[in-house]
């Protein structure tokens, strides 16, 4: 079941095309990683899917709801973590998460259960009563992830979810994303190839607003085999990471040269 549907999405700012006819889907139980250089169009796609901006052309649906025609239903079904989460520095962590939960309509026992869940799973016990302004970048990122998860949405849209985290925190958040993906559709972006390899069921490579390749890593290697010599081994994470680096570089350079 496709919970995220993007159909020929385009976004222009005057003469500049930030996104060009991008189409893809994300199904329940699937993690899809967006990989591309800075300015490739990743964040623009996420802003369209989270109803922050309307596309110039094309359409998008979340859980069957059109992002332009029914934005309230779309927002109710997504948890969104932007690259720079809008946090309130003067609030304590518990106050902020409660604030978001109330805005999402959580009450009573359900509210208590979700607060307890995000406090534990996002690793916020030590800072639960601290002002957000006193937190490290890594803990601020955890708070951002907690607000995206508080209402247990079926769709997660995560822009650089492990940004600023230390290696242990990255492993913990990775494990959390994998665990919850069984019942959700997750679209996330990262500039770290290791993260894409470790988390994604499918990978979308995007550059200059266009999708250059899409599929499992083995399929991407097949698409790029005439331009790069790689030998995929699904049981070798380091080799898979090196292969994706080669595929990504070859696809991006191929476009620049042509």
Question: What does the model show?
Answer:
With 258 residues, the chain is α/β, with parallel strands linked by helices. The longest helix has 21 residues, at 237-257. 39% of the residues lie in helices and 25% in strands. The protein has a 6-stranded mixed β-sheet with strand order 6-7-8-3-9-10, with helices on both faces. Strands 2-1-4-5 form a 4-stranded antiparallel β-sheet. The protein is built from 9 helices and 10 strands. The chain has 2 domains: 2-77 and 153-257, 3-Layer(aba) Sandwich (Rossmann fold); 92-152, no CATH class.
Q: Which regions are unreliable across 5 or more consecutive residues at pLDDT < 50?
A: 229-235, 254-258
Count helical runs. Answer: 9
According to CATH, the fold-level topology of the largest domain is Rossmann fold
| Global structural class | alpha/beta
Give the overall pLDDT as a whole number.
87
Major sheet characteristics? 6 strands, mixed
CATH superfamily of the largest domain: P-loop containing nucleotide triphosphate hydrolases
Tally of separate domains? 2
DSSP, total strands: 10
User: How much is the radius of gyration in Å?
Assistant: 19 Å
Beta percentage is 15-25%
Q: Give the fraction of residues assigned to helices.
A: 25-40%
* Termini separation: 37 Å
Helix-strand pattern: EEEHEEHEHHHEHEHEEHH
